Every structure is written in C-alpha cells, then in structure tokens.
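Aim 2 progress update. The chain analyzed this quarter is reproduced below.
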Amino acid sequence: MIKEFAQGLWITFKHMLPGNSTTVQYPRVERLPTAERFRGLHRLVPAQDREKCVACYLCPTVCPAKCITVESGENEKGEKYPVVYKIDLLRCIFCGYCVEACPVEAIEMTGEYELANYSRDDFTYEKQRLLR
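Predicted structure tokens:
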C-alpha cells in the first residue's frame, strides 16, 4: 500500500516540475493550431474586379439556421452579383453547408475562431467585412 502511495506522489510531483505543464498560455504565449477541416469565420472569395459570388441564392436556401441574407443585382455587363450579402453569426451553427452548396466556390470558412465582441451588431457580417 505504501508503494502505490509513493508511486502516486511521484507521478504528481513529476508533473509539477518545470516544463511539464499541461496548461497552454493562451493567448499571450501560444495558440493551439486548428485542424485543417475546422469551420471558423466565413469569408467571401474576391475575384479580379469584384467578389466571386453570382447571387444564386443556394447558400441561404441550404442554411438550416437561416442566417444568410442575399439580395442580387445586375451590373452593366448583365452579370448577377450580390448587392446585399449578410451573415448573422449569432444564428449561424457553422455547419459549412453554404460552402458545400456554392457552385462557384465564392464562400469559404477560415480557421479564425476568436469571435468575441461587446455588441450584438458586431456579429452581423456584411459583404465588405466578409471580403476582408
């Protein structure tokens, strides 16, 4: 019984030695890497002179949380583009269906996961903010 007690104490003291910490010093010293398939903040992919989106309405159609709003318009060449493109992150469940449904790969999900804000309005991402 004393042998097992001594082994338990040894394991505990071994973890208390410098360099054996299991705590990550986030965010000052290190950040944990995200997985390659992690679904974080959305981003609209820019094309040469405008965004790649053709306002086909597939992303708001497949969104189970109904957090995406798209309103389309046409430019002088007759090409459709989104006049309004908004994502409400307070409703979004980060499922990735909008990315899978997009026929022109105009929306993607980045690895950014630090989304805390002080105002509810800061969670509504409009087109210009999604293009950054």
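The beta strands are 42-44, 68-74, 80-88, 107-109, 124-125. The chain has one domain: 31-131. These observations will guide the mutagenesis experiments scheduled for the next reporting period.
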